[in-house]
């Protein structure tokens, strides 16, 4: 089955969690530096502050292929140039994806921000699909304090590129119980900043994680050479 905006079954990590209980779809877009009408647009607003631009998963796996990058730019340009058309296409994709999985007796799961950080909770799209489990990683710390749709789960993304940002993330974890994902260069420690570390590479079903943990991820793609503070050495 083909979709206009989301991808299904083409991500090595989400496939690990797909099967008889769950199936995941992800929407990838160009995270930053898209020029439209003479203005530079960043769909991952905190990328510079968090220092994750160079190590972004946008360059990992199939993201290194030119055809994949062109597809992500197409979606991004549609989002910037025709927001109504973009949301209509997304609605159609989600409807198709939901019906397909409901028929199979499988829980449909969607990450709308594969390589972006758009606050989709403000659009009302999730309330239109209560049967879908939505989830994302985010660097917008204030989202951890906001009321989210019942079917939307967020995991914060940690970085030490900016000390203030790092402290904001840790404070939010302690105050709200929201988990934080940390990218480690070589191996995962048992604890980080006093919190237990779980292996986030086993699958991508973050909404199943226990609260109050660090989701450990190993550096991939260009992130392996990152020295900004986004990738943590331990």
Distance between the termini: 43 Å
Order of helices and strands: EHEEEHHHEEEHEEEEE
Unreliable residue runs: none
Strand count: 12
Describe the main β-sheet briefly.
Answer: 10 strands, mixed
How many helical elements? 5
Strand content: 15-25%
How many structural domains are formed by the residues?
A: 1
What is the overall silhouette? globular
Report mean pLDDT, rounded to a whole number: 88
Q: What share of the residues lie within helices?
A: 25-40%
Query: SS-based structural class?
Result: alpha/beta
Care to describe what's here?
- The chain has 234 residues and is an alpha/beta fold.
- It has one domain (7-232).
- 26% of the residues lie in helices and 21% in strands.
- The protein contains 5 helices and 12 strands.
- Strands 1, 2, 5, 6, 7, 8, 9, 10, 11 and 12 form a 10-stranded mixed sheet that branches. Strands 3-4 form a two-stranded antiparallel ribbon.
- Strand 7, helix 5 (163-176) and strand 8 (180-184) form a beta-alpha-beta unit.
- The longest helix is centred in the middle third of the chain and has 22 residues, at 83-104.
- It is globular.
- The model has no long low-confidence stretch (mean pLDDT 88).
């Amino acid at each position: 089955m083909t979709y206009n905006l989301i991808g299904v079954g083409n991500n090595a990590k989400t496939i690990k969690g797909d099967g008889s209980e769950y199936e995941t779809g992800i929407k990838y877009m160009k995270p930053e530096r898209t020029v439209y009408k003479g203005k530079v647009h960043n769909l991952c607003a905190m990328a510079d502050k968090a220092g994750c631009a160079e190590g972004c998963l946008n360059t990992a796996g199939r993201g290194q292929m030119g055809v994949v990058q062109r597809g992500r730019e197409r979606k991004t340009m549609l989002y910037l140039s025709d927001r109504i058309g973009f949301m209509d296409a997304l609605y159609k994709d989600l409807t198709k994806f939901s019906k397909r999985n409901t028929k199979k007796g499988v829980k449909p799961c969607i990450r709308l921000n594969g390589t972006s950080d758009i606050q989709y909770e403000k659009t009302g799209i999730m309330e239109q699909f209560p049967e879908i489990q939505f989830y994302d990683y985010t660097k917008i710390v204030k989202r951890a304090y906001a009321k989210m749709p019942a079917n939307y789960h967020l995991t914060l993304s940690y970085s030490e590129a900016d000390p203030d940002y790092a402290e904001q993330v840790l404070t939010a974890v302690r105050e709200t119980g929201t988990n934080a994902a940390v990218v480690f260069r070589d191996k995962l420690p048992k604890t980080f900043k006093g919190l237990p570390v779980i292996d986030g590479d086993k699958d991508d079903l973050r909404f199943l994680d226990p609260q109050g943990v660090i989701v450990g991820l190993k550096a991939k793609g260009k992130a392996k050479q990152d020295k900004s503070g986004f990738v943590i050495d331990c």
